[in-house]
């Protein structure tokens, strides 16, 4: 089912407001962990903008340069977001923590940190709940990790993982500030920045892996593909389906190539009618399949991508 943009807008508003607040608090208190958290929220704000850009560009209609449309724009920008989380969010946080350990400075006016962290936790918590509800709506009864791996809409799980890392980062930042102030030891603050960087790096690796898989091209679910094959083989003109490669072009758009062994007695006119009939049946029963290429084939013969197919429009 199509994803809602609500979690993205919710996260965008929350992260922008929180980033500004965190940077103000960091300038007042001199907290390294707070600077890292400010950078984290700023990167997340940019991420939401890029996800919205990907969604907008993926809706562009097909043209001569992109005959199958721009659906993979969404996957590309989700991959860029995962790289930004690692390169900017994780890298800068880690660097800030190392620098603070090398040149420790005591945290001043810790009350500001606690106030900002509390406000940020509330906003990020609301954003996380919104994203989690949308993710649950999409996954249905599937297990959590199985749903992440099988999801073809990165905008949903990217925002969810971002918000989860936000909340974890806030907890770590709170502990860094609290322990640093409690024991009068600024090294806790620097260590908190490093841990935040490691959290962001771990999240980035997970998101990059899933986004890369989608960008490279994932097949439609085996159960769905099997149903398509069974539908085709029920046609009176068909002996068997020899090949059925498929690929997601976007969260709601799939291309399928069918190499079919038709009965030898069919005339050219009957073959064309059968192809049209099969095409219409697939499109009626599986709206997700936007493009179908059907090519007659012979068993035990090498199969090549068709030069002239019968596309579903």
TrEMBL record:
Gene3D superfamilies the record matches: Cation efflux protein transmembrane domain
Family annotation (SUPFAM superfamilies): Cation efflux protein cytoplasmic domain-like, Cation efflux protein transmembrane domain-like
Domain Cation efflux protein transmembrane: 10-216
Span of the signal peptide: none
A Pfam family matched in the record: Cation_efflux
Keyword annotations: Membrane, Transmembrane, Transmembrane helix, Transport
Protein name, UniProt field: Cation diffusion facilitator family transporter
Keyword Transmembrane helix carried by entry: yes
Membrane topology: Multi-pass membrane protein
Protein's cellular compartments: Membrane
Annotated source species: Spirosoma liriopis
Membrane-spanning intervals of the chain: 12-33, 39-56, 76-95, 115-135, 156-179, 191-208
Family annotation (InterPro entries): Cation_efflux, Cation_efflux_CTD_sf, Cation_efflux_TM, Cation_efflux_TMD_sf, SLC30A9
